[in-house]
Amino acid sequence: MEKTYDLIIIGGGPIGLACGIEAGKAGLDYLILEKGALTNSIYNYPVNMTFFSTSDRLEMADIPFMSVGVKPTRTEALEYYRRVYFHYKLKVNLYEGVETLKKVGDLFEIITSKADYNSKNIVLATGFYDLPNLMNVPGEDLPKVLHYYKEPWPFINQKVLVVGGANSAVDAALECWRKGAEVSMVLLGDEVDENVKYWVRPDIMNRIKEGSIRAFTHSKVKEIRERDVVIATPEGDTILENDWVLAMTGYKPNFSLLDQLGVELSLDDKRQPCYDQANQESNVPGVYLAGVVCGGLNTREFFIENSIVHAISIVNDILNKK
Asked: What is the structure's pLDDT at 39?
């Protein structure tokens, strides 16, 4: 660990790339560490996903984001950030996961799956798509239970239970149904989430109303077994024949990295990290937060379009301290 970086950015998503761009412009010696592929979270989105935001709002660093439709697709986003990466010749180590973080004196020691590093500052831009929220029910570890959905083709002529009522659950339910799956949904409330994409919500509501997709409202999964699932409903337990469970129950930030560095979390249900909104610095000097990780479990406040500015705030603060 001979070399000391000015800044190490953990997370190679859009916000991590934005931080790298600003650091490069400022002449900082930086490195981005990404445990998976470039913009790994977007890569793991469903294949046919369409963004809620328009392409112009996702642009960064003076690189135009061109898409066929007003709202870009996953593939168009992957291509856009690939172009950003090569245009700015960003220093990114891919498939290198961070294992431990520790502050020693005025420096941070970063140990990854491949190497050790020293840095004067750290940015956590880890997003929230890596760790699924578990249902914590018997049978959740069966191979037929999936917490990530890519495409409908494996579920043709299969009995599929979709758990959840947000965008990812609705997309999975509709796509699988249209490809010939027998789809049921388990919803905690009386209908799908009101924040579901406005051009998709009427579709799923009509499919449920006509009975094409069966919805168990005010219900939850009680047990998952090899050939069926047990659903707790207001009328009592229901046993449903089942081949696959798509648990679209949401995701959460990697709190372990925050804990290792001593970043304080709020005591309420949001578990929001402590940081200064003026410069994105946490309660630990030299540790900055960028993107959706700032919201803790509240993942609906921070998006790509309103988090890109975090990069400028962070780099300006580092420069002012230097």
From this structure: 96
103 and 94 Cβ atoms separated by less than 8 Å:
no
Instruction: State the Cα–Cα distance between residues 193 and 29, nearest whole angstrom.
Output: 44
Spatial contact of 293 and 265, defined as CB atoms under 8 Å apart: no
Q: E strands along 180-305, which residues?
A: 182-186, 214-216, 220-224, 228-233, 236-241, 244-247, 251-252, 287-289
Give tens-digit pLDDT for 130-161.
789 999 999 999 999 999 999 999 999 999 99
Looking up tokens 């959840």 gives 164
Per-residue model confidence (pLDDT) at position 127: 86
Residue 225 CA, chain-centre distance (Å), reads 28
What pLDDT was estimated at residue 107? 97
Name residues whose C-beta falls within 8 Å of residue 53's C-beta, 6 or more positions apart in sequence. Answer: 71, 303, 304, 305
- Cα 215 to Cα 192: distance, rounded to the nearest angstrom: 9
Distance of CA 302 to the CA centre of its chain: 11
Polymer length in residues for the chain: 322
Matching residue, tokens 């758990």: 163
Instruction: Give me the domains of the chain, ranges plus CATH numbers.
Output: 4-131+251-321 (3.50.50.60), 134-247 (3.50.50.60)
Averaged pLDDT of the chain:
95
Looking at residue 322, what is its pLDDT?
80
CA distance 211 to 193: 19
- With beta carbons less than 8 A apart as the criterion, state whether 300 and 252 touch: no
Angle at 222 between CA 217 and CA 225, to 5 degrees: 120
Give which of 288, 231, 320, 242 is closest to 101, Cα–Cα: 288
CA angle 301, 88, 124 (to 5 degrees): 35
